[in-house]
Design a protein that fits this description.
By secondary structure, the chain is of the alpha+beta class. The protein contains 6 helices and 10 strands; from the N terminus they run H-E-E-E-E-E-E-E-E-H-H-H-H-H-E-E. It has a 4-stranded antiparallel β-sheet, with no helix packed on it. The chain has a 4-stranded antiparallel β-sheet with strand order 2-3-4-8, covered by helices on one side. It has a two-stranded antiparallel ribbon with strand order 9-10. A hairpin with a 2-residue loop joins strand 2 and strand 3. Helix 1 packs across helix 6, helix 3 packs across helix 6 and helix 5 packs across helix 6. The two termini are about 30 Å apart. It binds a DNA duplex through helix 5.
DNA sequence: TCCAATGTTTCGCC
DNA sequence: GGGCGAAACATTGG
């Protein structure tokens, strides 16, 4: 559930509650639930993997971590609700997630220019950030939420495969053109992920992630924890040979 | 049945 | 203090 595109889908799925007043709050979250009662939702936002409920003078931040989930207008059986919001026209429940209150307006805490799915996404700014840290491996940079906000491990693997770059390449060794391609594809693939996920064909589209054979070379992909982040990379030694 | 995994933060050690 | 590894969270699918 947790990569950026999935959170955009969530945001779109809850629009029936936009502008509605919270009538009751439940769940085992540690936040003070009283402060949400009788408050009106000004909007639902997302910043990468963060799901944000805007109440104007403050906001709620939900992060689903690895296992988090939600349900709309129903309760999941045998599951403890972490945060449940009741509205006149339905309910929204979150499970196994991190919940935080932001004490000021959400726009003061968040900047959307790095969010690969935001209208404010700024590829030129992202490019400058990458150029500041040439020693880092591209697998780490792609997963860095302050540079590629919303990119997760699936998107990382598929984008690097698509542009034929080895995950352990130093970004300083990549040409300006290739870095721009990387930036463009991180956003483009995220939107494709979003479309595929909505029609339940996401995993059918994977070209290297969790694949038995490279879909270009028909040879077995490498599987290795790469970079300082040590997150799993699936890659083809034969065709992802650039900069390595 | 077991284990890994679409993630991030925090703690403790060297 | 930096850097690193492990733990914590706790579900789902292969």
């Amino acid at each position: 559930m947790p990569e950026g595109p999935s959170i955009v889908i969530l945001r779109e799925s809850v629009q029936a509650f936009n502008g509605k007043k919270v009538l009751a709050v439940s769940g085992n979250t540690k936040i003070d639930k009283k402060v949400l009662v009788n408050k009106k939702v000004i909007g639902f936002k997302s910043w990468g993997k963060h799901f944000l409920i805007d109440f104007g003078t403050f906001y709620v931040r939900i992060h689903f971590m690895l296992f988090g989930s939600y349900s709309i207008n129903e309760k999941k059986e045998n599951r403890k609700i972490r945060l449940g919001l009741k509205f006149k026209n339905g309910e929204l429940n979150f499970y196994t997630c991190s919940v935080l209150i932001g004490e000021q307006n959400v726009n003061k805490d968040y900047n959307w220019q790095t969010d690969v799915m935001s209208e404010e996404w700024d590829p030129a700014y992202v490019y400058k950030q990458i150029k500041l840290q040439p020693e880092r491996m591209v697998c780490d940079v792609l997963m860095d939420q302050t540079i590629f906000t919303g990119v997760g491990n699936i998107i990382k693997n598929e984008v690097l495969y698509r542009i034929k770059v080895h995950p352990e390449s130093r970004v300083g060794s990549m040409s300006p053109t290739k870095i721009k391609t990387l930036i463009r594809q991180a956003s483009k693939y995220s939107f494709e992920f979003y479309e595929w996920k909505k029609v339940f064909v996401l995993s059918k589209q994977w070209k290297i992630y969790k694949q038995k054979l490279c879909t270009r070379c028909d040879i077995k992909p490498e599987i290795k924890n790469t970079g300082l982040g040590k997150r799993k990379s699936y890659y083809c030694e034969n065709c992802q040979d650039l900069y390595k």
